[in-house]
Queue: 4 jobs
Job 1
Amino acid sequence: MSASANPEFMQRAIRLACENVRSGNGGPFAALIVKDGVVVAEAANSVTSTNDPTAHGEVNAIRQACKTLGTFTLQGCEMYSSCEPCPMCLAAIYWARIETVYFGCDCEDAARAGFDDSFLYKELRLPRSERMLKTVQLMPTEAWESFQTWIDAENKVDY
Amino acid sequence: MSASANPEFMQRAIRLACENVRSGNGGPFAALIVKDGVVVAEAANSVTSTNDPTAHGEVNAIRQACKTLGTFTLQGCEMYSSCEPCPMCLAAIYWARIETVYFGCDCEDAARAGFDDSFLYKELRLPRSERMLKTVQLMPTEAWESFQTWIDAENKVDY
């Protein structure tokens, strides 16, 4: 356990994850985002109730924290998640610039409960052509226009 | 180019990505989701305008397609994206059960335009303890309650 970890926040994430199952809102996952010792967002998985496959607890918490703080990054924030993040959530955590993640169950626990994301880590490690997902490049020369437009744009908001 | 790819959809994604920069809505990325030859969603990156670091074009398109179709998976759907998906979007594509992704620019083009996600692919490949992101496990025994609640739950919606 890290010296700065606050077990109350993890207890809260676990309780939210349990309540989320009982209420029928979604899967057994919840996350809090904390800044300077204060909870700025808490959210649970809502994939099935909101018809959103990206609505994992961590992604929902990131979206809510950014809305609350009025920012699109979360520097200086920590996440407390009832479970180790899946690759989608982990990547979202990097994009959000969250600095520390405390997690309860790990991915092996999740797999035992029927939530196995190891296939996804394996897929992400493979070269594009070896993945199960079919990916095909089309019209790269034309598509460069999108980046050229960005490069040429004035007053753009970098992120 | 795949025999079944429709270049009009890619042209549309590229046009949306360019318009997205010009309008100031966000980064130079857009994606369409197509089912049975019909566009069911189209969306562009809105990270900076909606304060949502997860609002990449692909994630926005997935969320919109699910809303339109009233489902939380997109079996039988294809994505046309102006750029190769980042790891977050790629994982979201797997969770959404999208079967084929056509992309315009690749990740090397993106890096040349200032959007380098290669660090993220590297991080995801590393064991947890070697990543830049600090991750700490807390209270795994208590956290198992969330999964036990799920295992014991009746009438749950699997996903």
Job 2
Amino acid sequence: MSKQSAVSNQQHLHRAAAQRTVQVSAILETTFYVRFAETDLMGIVHHSQYVVWMEEGRSDFMRRKGFAFDQWEAANIGFAVSELNLRYHAPARYGERVTVRTWIESLRSRQIVFRYEIVNADSRQELVTGTVKLIAVDRQNQVRTIPQEVQKLLAVSG
Amino acid sequence: MSKQSAVSNQQHLHRAAAQRTVQVSAILETTFYVRFAETDLMGIVHHSQYVVWMEEGRSDFMRRKGFAFDQWEAANIGFAVSELNLRYHAPARYGERVTVRTWIESLRSRQIVFRYEIVNADSRQELVTGTVKLIAVDRQNQVRTIPQEVQKLLAVSG
Amino acid sequence: MSKQSAVSNQQHLHRAAAQRTVQVSAILETTFYVRFAETDLMGIVHHSQYVVWMEEGRSDFMRRKGFAFDQWEAANIGFAVSELNLRYHAPARYGERVTVRTWIESLRSRQIVFRYEIVNADSRQELVTGTVKLIAVDRQNQVRTIPQEVQKLLAVSG
Amino acid sequence: MSKQSAVSNQQHLHRAAAQRTVQVSAILETTFYVRFAETDLMGIVHHSQYVVWMEEGRSDFMRRKGFAFDQWEAANIGFAVSELNLRYHAPARYGERVTVRTWIESLRSRQIVFRYEIVNADSRQELVTGTVKLIAVDRQNQVRTIPQEVQKLLAVSG
């Protein structure tokens, strides 16, 4: 999908996010409570924890797109994390519910960039934004191509 | 509440658990997906993770009983973990949903014992069972008494 | 090794621990700083973290006994955690160094019980004590026997 | 410090890193074993774990510069994580020792950027590189200025 059509798509679907980023998939939301163990002595969620939440958003995205982990395994596709970027805007705290908003920012034959927006589930205050770049690899950790039909399923339609 | 009436209560409500333990509260269930980050190189959920899940079961129990964390803080009651016991029956794996079944096994003026049964949410296979003993403390970490009305709210009625 | 000789051994080596437990191996110590991420909003180390530290004590014990993980793998021996018991005496805090004291409490053909004492590395204050029971399994997760020569190497001599 | 003098300094000390980054402090190294609990079902260290290691490198850096955490607290200076960027080059595995190389890339009145290079402690293979941007805040989470004398102690001389 071209960058242009992605921009066009996001204009209709997700205005707020669209102002900042391109998007080649639906935005899916995953909501859960902050766990006590996720906090640190500053009284807030530890900054490493958002990386785990982003991964959970991605897992949920894949499940809802119909890709269970055992299917990836059977198809001999794994995804190695290549880059990670986070911006911290406000802290999450124990007792709050957070929503991870997950979408695909770019999808190429051998890599996917997911973008995230983590917000307070109730106030919708923005807490953390970020991206993760994944490289498709086989069991021998060699870079491989994501099959066309998988690329289609991951991309925009819903 | 006497041990006898607790046993009587659980006979009606929760037969399987009743065979093994007494119970002075309802059993509340909390269900979620296993996170990728919770696994280890054996391909299963790391054994320390169940301790976090038990705590999340306890948090959910408290929330549904109407006790938000900030209320505990305002009332100057905290709970210090005093003992932890787990038995591992079968491993949880990524891709599965687990259910943490949480109830109070004993409730005394200064301590609570929670009992847990963690099962596969779909097959109901038993994965881990355990208990945690909590001591009520104030902000200065001094042992204190759990107010009568709190004890009543935590106990059996639902 | 008989229970008696274990007791005799520990009398010379480790008086404090000897008062409570039998011991069929040397006690090895592993010391490290508390990590910031290991704390929670109570300002202390989260209670699940001691389980990870006990495992790290066990890893270090095995390494110093000459058993690298790849050797276990090559010998098709894994260890599944079967039981976990912890008693919390005092909290560890960020900025402190802790020492995990690890020894084998019982060693049978198919299972090992490790006992731990986690202390403040400087004051030697006791923080947490506990045990973990491990079952020897092969790659198919079937219970198997720990080879005689391995049992000998793990046991008492140093 | 100008980029040029930083490069000059690091040429003598740390050639590989010098090619990519400026540096306004010494590079300090912190070495430890990978923990079993830090791995995931891919058999490698989970990508969120490097964030914790970077923080541990930073803690060690601060300790060796003479700043204990309670001194920061007493001085009413905290550091809020503002940005995090990681590049993953090769995975760490259980059984390996890793070295976190930590230095200050930029130091301004209200923020510090730490840069990290995480390498295999034995082969020196590069595993992960990254930066974290910290904002100096007081107890009320208001941005504040890092005292001049602290800035001097953190910066280049050793």
Job 3
Amino acid sequence: MTSTQSHLVNGVDAERLAATVSAIESQPGLGRFQFRATNRSISGGLNRSQIGTFHGAGAEHRVDTAPFVVDNDEPPVLLSDDRAPNPVEYVLQALLGCMTTSTLYKAAAQGIEIDSIRSEIEGDLDLRGMLELDPDTRAGFQAIRARLCIKTKGDRQALRALHRSSPVFDTIARPVPIEVTVEFED
Amino acid sequence: MTSTQSHLVNGVDAERLAATVSAIESQPGLGRFQFRATNRSISGGLNRSQIGTFHGAGAEHRVDTAPFVVDNDEPPVLLSDDRAPNPVEYVLQALLGCMTTSTLYKAAAQGIEIDSIRSEIEGDLDLRGMLELDPDTRAGFQAIRARLCIKTKGDRQALRALHRSSPVFDTIARPVPIEVTVEFED
């Protein structure tokens, strides 16, 4: 991921990044994004999401392109056929991906070149929570541990905490209000 | 998703589900799972995860099968090429998938047949948080709204809150401790 053009740092256009930051500073509403997905059940643990349009920087995006399709399933030990990762695995991989991108973008903004980032993650989850067999056990992850390995000749100290600005990190580390409406049809 | 065999409810083997619950009740350690992923950066917003083995019910799983590969990218307005959903979109779709599966499984355990679940979700995120332009704006989702539409002839009241036992719902709604180790190589 060394720069191939003068304005690319870590594969990120550092000039456009600086311009984006300036634009949001002068017009805060441009920072407001809304991301979306839809899903439909197929059978048992298998269901299918579509990820299409989103709003951001004052406009709608992906309006004329086909949505991404993402399948969720559960493995045999969780009573399905393992045709895709399960939802909690998607959350773990999203956390790695988001910490990686946040680190690369923030480093690019500071002009620090990163050759690569490799990472791994594990999350502990006790089914007694979801099954409501123990009131003291939560349904979700009890703890998540990740390791990032950053290959760089740049300033290590400046890179050490950049992952903490990751939107997925913050979404998991701190509570998010979720409003769910349940409707029925015959 | 009507039963095609007598023991399948919502595509879930209700007898195996009951046996699983009993086994965890009598041997709580069987409920402990650990899910995992790895990731490597490619360029800019593009990075690639692998989702392979996990531990659960006292054993390692997916030991002899190839890992799932999941790409993350960012759209052009976020300075990349939109070759895949971005990490926060994966989190939203995982929440829909997990609420759907939790509802179907819990309904199956109660013998309530569901024909299908369709759902949609949106999440508000302000880039000023991630960019640290405003100390009062968080990096992650500020609010998430979802709508589940359950097609069933069964007891609606019994189905109304089953999504709340979803592990991804709990992971996002309540804080999870995340420990991140950052290492460097030249």
Job 4
Amino acid sequence: MPGGDATPVEPAPLHPSLAPLVWMVGTWVGEGLGSYPTIEPFAYTEQVTVSHVGKPFLAYAQRTWSVDDGRPLHAETGYWRCASDGAVELVVAHPTGHVELALGTASGTSVAMASATVAGTPTAKEVTEVHRRLAVEGDRLRYELDMAAVGRPLGPHLRGELVRAAGERRP
Amino acid sequence: MPGGDATPVEPAPLHPSLAPLVWMVGTWVGEGLGSYPTIEPFAYTEQVTVSHVGKPFLAYAQRTWSVDDGRPLHAETGYWRCASDGAVELVVAHPTGHVELALGTASGTSVAMASATVAGTPTAKEVTEVHRRLAVEGDRLRYELDMAAVGRPLGPHLRGELVRAAGERRP
């Protein structure tokens, strides 16, 4: 399978359109805190991977585990794209039965996104809005995610701080 | 990272709600043909992985490569969920800037899905509807994907036939 897991190939150069997000490429590990008015606060460990194949998108995958017992918690997966003038597009699927389409802007080594579409399956909880902010300083990535869900207004949900995985170089 | 790539853990049992889709779990490789009234037909190789972590969703990832020169073509990533009575939910993110939320029904070792929501970013092409049919017989997975896009009505877009990757057992 060309380019598949079993056949390493020469890494493709980053697509030029992705320059505003190059600082995000890599594997990131760390911890986060979740909260919302309707739930008990919780702590999690997290791994985020942002990768590319030379085409004009970054592949994004995230997983979290409970700090308490290592059981899997959330995951999400999708793609980042860049339009012109620092405009950024994000599409994400969530195992909770949601899709999220967000638009925003990159500035330096940070990006701020606001959902334009959030849709849920019949068994999914009501989520109406998601805002994300990510910023990298050196080898440290910090993010904040705010959410409007289950009838509550937009408010803090997740805060995380990750570091570039050992052995990785900045792109 | 518990459960992460670096730390293999004992595989969790499949969540009971996923019984209607157990036949889909695995790694699948094969070939497909793409067509649409607005493009030249094209052939691709493909890898599909459907996996789980014991929670009530299946993680889904797909990649395709050109048969001609092995260059990456499409990819998509998301999650399958089961509701009651064979009802199935699918959420997918596409690197083309689309999110797709589809509802359908599992029957035996097949599933038929129709999009309930398709949304695209400002730089994405117009896609308004996606229908998917997947069926497994033995170690062979066949699928068809129809699409309504760029002003055309719902019609054939992708047809693929994959086999369970070598060394994999049926779940």
